Amino acid sequence: MTNVSYQINISPFDIEMTRHLLEHQVNFFKDQVAEVLITYNLSEELLSDPGYKEKHERTMKLIDSLTDDKVRYITVDYSEKMINEVFDYFYKNLKNRPLFDCKGTPIYAFIYGFYQCKYDLVFHIDGDMFFAGTSKVWMKEAVELLESDPKLLTVSPHPGPPHPDGILLEQRYSKTDKPYVFEFDHMGTRVCLFDRRDLHQKLFYQLPTLKNIVYAKVFKKPMMDLMERIISKYMRMNGLKRIDFLGSDGGVYTLHPLYRSQEFFDNIPRIIEDMQNNNIAEEQRGRYNMYTFIDWTEAKENFMQAKSLKRKLLGIK
Q1: Which of 101, 152, 157, 99 is nearest to 125 (CA)?
Q2: How many angstroms separate the CA atoms of 44 and 56, rounded?
């Protein structure tokens, strides 16, 4: 066990996924860390809506079923005092403190979880991450790697099931002289191990890309760039890097689902089982995003229709 806070973000909106995935996430790493912190992003003003309230009640029942002593949960504190305290820790001289970025993704809830961890070493994951592998020492190896190089800002598990040729597909990276160890000059915020002290007053205001400025204006979102772009710029400005690696004893890898559908939600237990049993299609190996396991046709069509509608609203042909 290492002195790492394993921090997981969830919200009531995600209950159809969380009901199957949260226990998998908690159990996968809980024996390798000192605490598991579930950060629950609850919107109090939405509780008057029966549908949202029902999702909240189901989520709370799920959280209460996790009885391990290492597991605790917190609800995001949106008081002005706490908002200022959290932003003051991570940002320097930030006057405007938006709770969301230009795409409507939570900023404050994201860094609030980091701030509330018991330990400075934080292993953060988003609530939609899948894990597989047999290593019981991945976290120990990750901490040793992180602490061995002052230019290393974050460490993450191998992105996708390992490819037999030791490569990654559809990703921009640099190979190292070690098998299944990859170097990046940019941040991935869905899953990352880092020392929060390395981000103390290091974040800053940054305008979004031109496309996202238009998006923010149309959909009335804050003019704040995405967190991963801000941290990535900080990394490049200071010559910092990220390492994704498999590790020993069978290693650990992640998968991330791009799409959502009821079929996907219902098949999460089977997908986890397939991953654990190494029942992986060849076209999935080396890929970080989940392409196989189920038929994504309907989910992709719904995604593309929503994307097309947004493009029309933005005036993009």
Answers
A1: 157
A2: 10
